[in-house]
Amino acid sequence: MGRAPCCDRENVKRGPWSPEEDSTLKSYVAKHGTGGNWIALPQKAGLRRCGKSCRLRWLNYLRPGIKHGGFTEQEDNVICSLYKSIGSRWSVIASHLPGRTDNDVKNYWNTKLKKKLLTAHSNLNYHHNKKKSNNNSNGSKHTCDSTPPSPPTAAVLAVKSEDYGFGSFSMPADNPASSALAPVDAGAFGCFNSHSQVLVPEPASFPVPGLADQSNYGGSANGYVVSPSAQDISAASSCLTTDNGIGWSDNAGGVVDVFLMELGLAGPMDLLTDGGYGLLDRVGDVGSVQVGGSGLWPNAGDNPQELYQGVTYS
DNA sequence: AACTTGGTCAACCGCTCTGAT
DNA sequence: TATCAGAGCGGTTGACCAAGT
Length: 314
Prior knowledge:
It is found in: Nucleus. This protein is an alpha+beta fold.
């Protein structure tokens, strides 16, 4: 048996609000406030609407000070940076943007900002590959294919996260790489939710033997960065395409910078792919990511055991 | 001009969280 | 402590509109 509906669906109006309903709700709230009880409000206000509907209409549209459309670049940046660090917690993100509602931010992200970033990112990858292609030609001039590069394939050492909102790789459950890896309780790492697993080659051990010390990279990553060798990575030799296989986001910390240095990428924005590809975009690239502390990226003072993952392109 | 396709956004649905009892 | 109702939230839907064919 399902949960009882919050209102009598037979007797409430649904769909778009009329100007009359808007003004009824507005004037009622102006006079009496919400009274802390949205369920009872429509009856008191004389509206044939569900209380939840009234609440939504008020919060997203009628409330004073609401802004619609016309997001500024500064707001874009706030949304991007918060999305990277906390994921799709729209209400939290909206609370950082005066006059914006969670619904607005969510719609804006889904319909515009995400595409904008993916486009920008694929352009970046395109130029990155183009540059590499030119380098490989020993200085000779290359004509460049006008079509964007197809997604590379990757061998994945560690990694499966089903639905955590930020700082995660993900691999389809039916990917052959999954079966080649041993599941490890990710709860110990404090970064994945209870449904997620971190997968490592058997036998599972932390840190993974053979992973290089981060000091090779200038020590700017809180002491925890590791860079697995291609041999380590080859232990997980199954391949998957990153097109729909790897999702990635980051909080733009020092680890990311080191990771990007290793990959020859430009900056943290390179990693904002939200399920797209482009984290590693060259055959032979080897990189590392970490799990530790209170989030995906360890902070100074976190336990160094709580880290690492590695990927390379094959 | 008619139809199709794709984008936008308001609104709904169903779940979890929270506070009162 | 357990239960329940209401609030809050994120994901999804569908109506509407504009652009393309």
